């Protein structure tokens, strides 16, 4: 900083000159000379400070209007000018990058909206405007729940489990079906991605309707065949060994097909978005006692089945659907556990959530199969599943029921040691009675 150094040298010279003048002219003139010089210096700095202050006060200080100055102030102003140049260059770069990003997101086929920590819209692209029938200039800062007026979406937002997208039919545009996915990021902000899946939904509906219709059409012929096979088996007193065996096989296969048809129909009912959950207060304790007795008769004394009820909390949901999901998990535990094995059914509150556990000491599952178990017809061991009367649809039904109740399924298993199927229901689905208040943690 040569300017500042010069100033420092001039002050030192001034002080030396005053000191030299002191013995020659006397104290008063020397001090008067020193004070006058300092006053001039002070006025010089004050003038430049005022100029700088006035320049900074202008609404948009620009380099072109930067005041002229000499000496140390000249240096300061030159530095300031350089700083402003580099700042405006990086600002230009930033604006260009932002513009490019906005162009890119505008060209995206998906709707993108940024939500702040209280779920108000901070920004959205034109596709999101179209999907949610909103105008960003008018609706910026509005809570997203005012614009997507769907109970399902409000529930999805509060559960904070965004692993699966939510499918909604846009009420303002009857024909539009959207897949919504929330992605938390940064400082409690969220990215809301919306995809138009109307066409996909239509194809999926056709597939679902086809499977449901075929299953429905098969129901009656199968009932007739089953009925006649039963009559034939009862009447066939003198039939040959081969004939008897054929009748038994035909009856078994008919029962298998009937079970398959019933599971397919159950699945298509669960998949149908027009078929909402028949909400009610479900007495889980009573349901599990009944399922426990059913499990004992299915096991026929081959396993040690235990029921552990740690809470009498009820659930808000569909009794039929929950019964079907729980019963599938329990029957799997029995079917995939060798004689003499242990099976535990447990209902408790864990970390504020309702937890249902089915634990067995059965054959277990290799970890590579776990992510695919809930797919339709996915079986680890096809022949074992068939032998024990499985349809390959049990866990697919469980998955659908749970997702309709915003619950999730965790599977922990070790081959040869056993499996644990853990179902967690969100706190807002729990109904805790006065007599048995919800324990904080169990
Ligand atoms: P399935 O009718 O074949 O039992 P599911 O959908 O109920 O069909 O189950 C899918 C597959 O997951 C089964 O075929 C079986 O391989 C495996 N599985 C399910 N539950 C258990 C369990 N408790 N122990 C071991 N394997 C299991």
C-alpha termini separation: 69 Å
H/E element order: HHHEEHHHHEEEHHEHEEHEEHHEEE
Beta percentage is 15-25%
- What portion of residues is helical? 40-55%
At a glance:
The protein is of the alpha+beta class. The protein has helices at residues 2-25, 27-57, 71-107, 126-131, 136-139, 144-147, 151-159, 198-235, 241-271, 284-299, 319-335, 382-387, 394-404, and strands spanning 111-115, 121-124, 166-169, 177-185, 189-196, 280-282, 304-309, 314-317, 342-350, 353-360, 408-414, 418-425, 430-431.
Q: Can you give a write-up of this model?
A:
This protein is of the alpha+beta class and 442 residues long. It folds into four domains: 2-101, no CATH class; 108-196, PAS domain (Beta-Lactamase); 203-271, Helix Hairpins (Orthogonal Bundle), CATH 1.10.287; 280-431, Heat Shock Protein 90, CATH 3.30.565.10. Helix content is 53%, strand content 17%. It is built from 13 helices and 13 strands. It has helices spanning 2-25, 27-57, 71-107, 126-131, 136-139, 144-147, 151-159, 198-235, 241-271, 284-299, 319-335, 382-387, 394-404; strands spanning 111-115, 121-124, 166-169, 177-185, 189-196, 280-282, 304-309, 314-317, 342-350, 353-360, 408-414, 418-425, 430-431. Strands 2-1-5-4-3 form a five-stranded antiparallel beta sheet, with helices on both faces. Strand 9 (342-350) and strand 10 form a beta hairpin. The protein starts with a helix and ends in an 11-residue tail after the last strand. The model is unreliable at 438-442 (pLDDT under 50). The structure holds adenosine-5'-diphosphate. Residues 328, 332-333, 336, 360, 362-363, 365, 373, 378-381, 385, 390-396, 419 line the site of adenosine-5'-diphosphate (ADP).
